Amino acid sequence: MNNHKKPTAYQLNSFLNPSLSLLGLNLRKLPIRLKAVLLHTQRQALNFSNHPYLCKSLMTMKKLLILFALFPLVVKAEFTTLSTQKTQDKVKQGVLIIDVRRQDEYNKYGIIPNSHKLTFFDKSGRHNAYQWLDDLSKIVPNYDTPFILVCAHANRTKTVGRFLDEKTEYKNIFELGGGINEGWIEKGLATTKIAISKGKSWYKFW
Question: Which three-class secondary structure state does DSSP give residue 175?
C-alpha cells in the first residue's frame, strides 16, 4: 500500500527550480514539451523521495534533469539585438541582412547595401509565414548561418525574430537595434537611397 502523500505544487517547483537556477534557467522559459517532461519526471521522483533506497536515484535524476534542461541551450542560441557598430562589424564579416519591410519602404528609404528584401507583413499586417520561410531558406543556406533582420524601427524584426527563434531551427538570428531608421540612417550611414550624412537625416525633411 502506498502511504506517500501527493506532492504539493510548492514541492514540485522547489525540486526543479533550484537545479535549473544553478544554470541560470527559468522553468517558465523552457519549451512546452520539455517542461512537461521535466514536471512529469519530478512528480515521479517526489512520490518516492521519502524512500531510503531511492534517495541516491533521486539525486541522479536531478542531475539528469539539469542535463536535459541544458541540452536545448547548447543546440539553440537566442535571438539577439545588435548595436549599429556590431551590425557594421558583422556586415564586414559577410553576415547576411534580411530586410522584412515593404516595397514602398524600400522605395522611400532604400536598403542597407547588399541586403536581401524579404517582406513579412503587408500594409494590413497580413503575412504568409510558410511562404516567407520557404523564401528565407533560399537565401540562408542552413540553420547555422547567421543573419540580421532589419525593419523600420525594430518592431517587426522582434516579432519575426522571436517567431524564428521559437518555431524554427535557426540558431544565429540577429536584429538591428532601432531598425534602419534609428539604427542606421540616424547614425549617418548610407542606404541605397540616402547618402552618408553628418547632419540631420534626409528622411526627416520628407
Answer: strand
Q: Order of strands across the sheet with 96-99?
A: 80-82, 173-176, 147-150, 96-99, 116-117
Cα separation, 203 vs 78, whole angstroms: 33
Q: Which pLDDT does position 198 carry in this prediction?
A: 52
Q: Which of 4-8, 18-22, 25-29, 138-142 has the highest average model confidence (pLDDT)?
A: 138-142
DSSP 101-150: S-HHHHHHH---TTPEE---S-TTS---HHHHHHHHHHHS-STT--EEEE
As given in the structure block, the three cell numbers for residue 83 are 548595436
Every domain of the chain and the residues it spans:
9-74, 80-205
If pLDDT is split at 50, 70 and 90, which confidence band does 194 have? confident
> 8-22, 69-83, 115-129, 151-165 — which is least confidently predicted?
8-22
Please provide the CATH number assigned to the domain covering 80-205.
3.40.250.10
State in Å, rounded, how far the first CA of the chain is from the last one: 80
Do the beta carbons of residue 153 and residue 168 sit within 8 Å?
A: no
Asked if 158 and 175 count as a contact pair (C-beta separation under 8 A), the reply is yes
User: 87, 183 in Cβ contact below 8 A?
Assistant: yes
Q: Which residues contact 102 (CB under 8 A, 6 or more apart)?
A: 119, 121, 122, 123
